[in-house]
Design a protein that fits this description.
71 residues, five-stranded antiparallel beta sheet, 0% helix
């Protein structure tokens, strides 16, 4: 079963710049447009919008790419 995260959770993920951390700002359970691309999402496989801790960058990832960080 997929991991479940909620708005406000502190998570990290591996990017081309290395490990990045941030807080989840939105959970998508339906397909969504993101940076000009359609992102598939469903109740079973949501996509998460995350705001980086260090910048204002917003990323979108599935739960399989995320790890929860203890605050």
């Amino acid at each position: 079963m997929a991991k479940r995260f909620k708005v406000g959770d502190h998570v990290q993920w591996n990017s081309e710049a290395g490990m990045v951390s941030g807080h989840i700002t939105r959970v998508h359970t339906e397909d969504a447009e993101y940076k000009g691309h359609k992102r598939r999402a469903s109740e079973d496989e949501p996509q998460y919008e995350i705001k980086s801790d260090k910048t204002d960058h917003i990323a979108m990832h599935k739960d399989s790419a995320l790890t929860k960080v203890d605050d």
